[in-house]
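Ex. 9. Protein: LAME_0B00826g1_1.
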Amino acid sequence: MFTRVARRLLSWTPEEKLIFDKLSKQLSPRQIEVRDVSGGCGSMFAIDITSDKFKGLTMVKQHKLVNKILEDDIKRWHGLQLRTRTE
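Predicted structure tokens for LAME_0B00826g1_1:
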């Protein structure tokens, strides 16, 4: 996994890196993928994240937690595709 993440880090946009850093700091994920799915303009992102911090939370509460962490950034986006998991 770390090799895949390391290769991906080399091609990240600044916004993808910012999202990755914020979520990593707050959620200590076991797995995280952040992709700009807007064609590179930074208006829509797909986030797939697995974190133990989601345990015991409904999917709605997991998504609210991510939205809270990224609330200042989300204001600039057109959309967000979010997948959260505990395992």
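Check your answer against this statement. The domain at 2-85 is CATH 3.30.300.90 (GMP Synthetase; Chain A, domain 3).
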